[in-house]
Amino acid sequence: MEEVLETQVVVIGGGITGAGILRDLALRGIKAILVEQGDLGHGTSTRNHGLLHSGGRYAVRDPEAAVESYHENLILKKTIPGSIEKTGGLFVKLPEDDDDYAQKWLRSCKKLGIPVEEIPVEQALREEPYLNKKAQAVFCVPDGAVDDFTLLVDVCADAVRRGAKTLTYHKVTDIVTEQERVVGVCIRDVLTGMEKEIRADIVVNAAGPWGMEIAGMAGVPLKIINNKGMLVVFSHRFNKRVINRLRMPGDGDIFVPAHDVTIFGTTGVNTENPNDFSLSRPELEHMLADGKALIPSIDDMRLIRAYSGSRPLYQTSAGRGSSGRDVTRGMALLDHHERDGMDGFITITGGKLTTFRLMAEKTVDLVCEKLGVQANCTTNVETVSGRRTGDSFNKADIAPAARHKLRNWAGVQAPKIESALKEEESSHIVCECEQVTWAEIEAAMPEKGSFRLGGIRRRTRLGMGPCQGTFCNFRAAALAAEKGRATIEEADGALLHAVSERKKGMGVVATGETARQLLLMETIYRVSLGFGEEAHQNV
Amino acid sequence: MYDVVVIGQGLSGMLSAIWAREEGCRTALVTTGAGKIMQSTGVMDLIPGSDGNLNEWMGIYHLGSWQQSRLNDAIRKFKTLMNRLGYPYKGEPQDLIPIVTGSGRIKHTALYPETISPVTEEGSAVVVGFNELTDFQPLFIRKNLQKERPLLSIDSIRIHLGKYSQRLMTQLDAARLLDQRDIRTDCIGQIKKQMAQKQIGRPDLFIFPASLGEDEWKETVGQFHSELRAKVTEAPGMPPNATAIRLNDRLKREAIRSGVRFYADTTVVGANMDGEEIKSLRIKTSGRVSNLSGKQFILATGGVLGGGFEITPEGIKESALHLETDSSGVMARLPVNLYPVGASKGVQMICHGIVGGVYTLLSTYEAVCGLRQSVTGGVGNA
Ligand SMILES: Cc1cc2nc3c(=O)[nH]c(=O)nc-3n(C[C@H](O)[C@H](O)[C@H](O)COP(=O)(O)OP(=O)(O)OC[C@H]3O[C@@H](n4cnc5c(N)ncnc54)[C@H](O)[C@@H]3O)c2cc1C
Ligand SMILES: Cc1cc2nc3c(=O)[nH]c(=O)nc-3n(C[C@H](O)[C@H](O)[C@H](O)COP(=O)(O)OP(=O)(O)OC[C@H]3O[C@@H](n4cnc5c(N)ncnc54)[C@H](O)[C@@H]3O)c2cc1C
């Protein structure tokens, strides 16, 4: 072992669940290190729909989850405003949708305290012109849209500010046990290959779809079914509010606005492999056919890319003795001491993005109990700094659109970016679709570790617009090499990787303009810039 | 009634129209928008994205050996035209030359404008970038070039054009600035100063972005060459490249000058057939549909990238004439008076998105030969 670290708690998994736990631990004064095999959000937490549930979707099928969602929805809007747009949502009943379900739904929402307000169909059609004119009834609910990635990085950054540590690009390779007790984890720096160990009193498995693998390392039986869902991104935002279909939840029945685009989904197919992010054209077509019922002109709208993620669904059957503590049906908190006789080890799985805070609260309550720490959860009131920065960037010599974006996006990075922008070259626009300047890119780069465009994209929105990185990936990589922020190998490698990743996401939706954009990208890289065969790796 | 109606304003469309006029045909050109040369590099490749030679090219494009002399004629005709238009092209398809791109990688091409020089294996080169121009990063280029040219001694420097704008500066914007003599003189001064400071000796070649002047390219290249006392080359890369824009502008001006009637911002939305012949095109301008009749038609709609083919979930559709095609876009029954050229011939002709300049020239030339034969009543001799 080349390095041994010590802490009180190790959190495995840099998804929203792990991040929430890390922050809660930090707020309660417990030392912790979060270990993530990729960048933050490598898993489901950046591969979901970004809907801040009002609870409406679960009102009939799972009242408990519905209430939890609604309560968390209210808390998150207050405590993490920077990542949430209070769009509101609509539940729309179409002629073919079951009347009984609609009645049950209304009764249940009322009983659960989820505020529902019916609005005239004409009004709904005026406000959402793309909605099916045949809609029979429309109800407003307090749904919202979450930027899953900013949520995750902001929660983590807040934890780090409060003394927690994160190790990204570090993979947990083993769990160290001594006499029926977990005492630490072995980790490998995936960029350098360096092996390290972290000794800790408690290890929390928050590895989402990979949770089974982690439990296996501790010799604990755990059954998680990964249910893969597909989502697609439209080139522009055509709905102001979230649009849900008022029927028993199914495939392809939610449209969520996200910044300037609309995200539509989803599907559910079980998969064995947590690393399976594959996309299928028939699945997409089936989903679009469903979506047409709500938005009839769906075929005329341009899809810019698709992605998929897996919901980890906990199966109670695999436990040894007692069946663990089911927090609710969707969310499982397993005390492996109680359940399997393995002390110092906890698994938290299932749940939703919307309920991550609650999952963290329950988990950290259990950690405190085990450590004998008396401290109450405060994440329901403590806020995470927002991203809006008022009238900053007044002096920066940048286009109005870039200034607007920075004011709504830079958050705590604002002073750093603002001072970098004083230099002319830092204020050069690198990504025109999303108005990203070099100053932002530089602020988004990790202090150490290798240069990766994916991490920069998620932190700045570089390459997220209609051209999907055709131009700006090249500019960013070349600039990084130019300015000594990346070696030439890193720059070229990052570029080829980013291009092939984008191609994967675009390939399945590649018709019309998107097919053209994909070809243009290939022509520019292969023909104009002379990139060789390597440009085609993993495509 | 026109003798020839060309659909598309890319390289193939404009060349077809110019050459049809040279044959004395009354010619119209209908186009929705600009062609791909606006995004192109301005050089003419054999197999796009590959350094395969003439034989491999002929294999890939299923060309017979008898087409080789036509290829030579096509290239000669193109070079003669470009000489006349004041933007001469060099090179031969038998003899590909290595040029450096805006990423520092080497690509091999057949025909190239006079602003481009090949990169040698040995000797020395200096890459010059402009601080304001994000699309061309000299150190990055130098490092990539060094990988491909280990024996070449390469340096890189960055200078100011002295024009910052909040908008992203392109290679074309930079070219327009370099059309101004005082800016060029200032740049040369900066280059000399930096070379002296960094003790860089006079190289064999200076590598610039594809920005060495737009209208004044000759003066620009000439001044850099004589005052820096070394060869200079442009390294085309991210669009728009001045190398390609010059070609586009000169062809367009020539087409207009020679009397081609332009129907700009006009989309072909169908064809009126009379048996196996196209009688007229249905064209749409600002929402209004009308007919445009002609004797012969050239389809130069550029394939998928040019807009001539649409990829739909059901497969490829020909989107201008709405004629039935097979799965690669080849027309099931080609009307007798229609000549598809370039990428309009079907997606099987496409490598990495395009057909390549040399094939574009050949297919355009062949189409014009076909016109000539039928206009003079010689179809039977074909
Ligand atoms: C298609 C789809 C749509 C959804 N839509 C919504 C929605 O609209 N609203 C909502 O509230 N919820 C939604 N969800 C649910 C929500 O996304 C998930 O519940 C949530 O993201 C789970 O987060 P997590 O942190 O538990 O898992 P993850 O985000 O997957 O995090 C687990 C992390 O562990 C890491 N890891 C795994 N193994 C190791 C190891 N050996 N070493 C180190 N790190 C490791 C992984 O890299 C990963 O980053 C959706 C889910 C899906 C699949
Ligand atoms: C990024 C890029 C880089 C390139 N680099 C190189 C290179 O390095 N070497 C090389 O040899 N070649 C290169 N090329 C290719 C080269 O530029 C083209 O092959 C060449 O310009 C020929 O194109 P074209 O005339 O066949 O079609 P296009 O230029 O695509 O023109 C098609 C025309 O048809 C019009 N049109 C389409 N549909 C309709 C309709 N229904 N009605 C009316 N008009 C219509 C369009 O508006 C357009 O004007 C590159 C191309 C691109 C995009």
Written overview of the protein:
The complex is a heterodimer of chains A (539) and B (382). With 539 residues, chain A is of the alpha+beta class. Among the domains of chain A are: 84-145 and 225-311, D-Amino Acid Oxidase, Chain A, domain 2 (2-Layer Sandwich), CATH 3.30.9; 400-537, no CATH class. Helix content of chain A is 34%, strand content 22%. In chain A, strands 6, 7, 8, 15, 16, 17, 18, 19 and 20 form a nine-stranded mixed β-sheet that branches. Chain A has a seven-stranded mixed β-sheet with strand order 10-3-2-14-23-22-21, sandwiched between helices. Chain A is globular, with a radius of gyration of 23 Å. The model of chain A is unreliable at 319-328 and 535-539 (pLDDT under 50). The model of chain B is unreliable at 377-382 (pLDDT under 50). With 382 residues, chain B is of the alpha/beta class. Chain B is elongated, with a radius of gyration of 22 Å. Chain B has two domains: 2-89 and 246-262 and 286-375, FAD/NAD(P)-binding domain (3-Layer(bba) Sandwich); 117-235, Rossmann fold, CATH 3.40.50. The longest helix of chain B is centred in the C-terminal third of the chain and has 19 residues, at 357-375. In chain B, strands 1, 2, 11, 12, 13, 14 and 17 form a seven-stranded mixed β-sheet that branches. Chain B has a four-stranded parallel β-sheet with strand order 8-7-9-10, sandwiched between helices. Chains A and B meet through helix 14, helix 15 and helix 16 of A and helix 4 and strand 15 of B. Residues 12-18, 35-38, 42-45, 48-51, 53, 171-172, 206-210, 214, 229, 231, 265-266, 309-311, 351-354 of chain A line the site of one flavin-adenine dinucleotide (FAD).
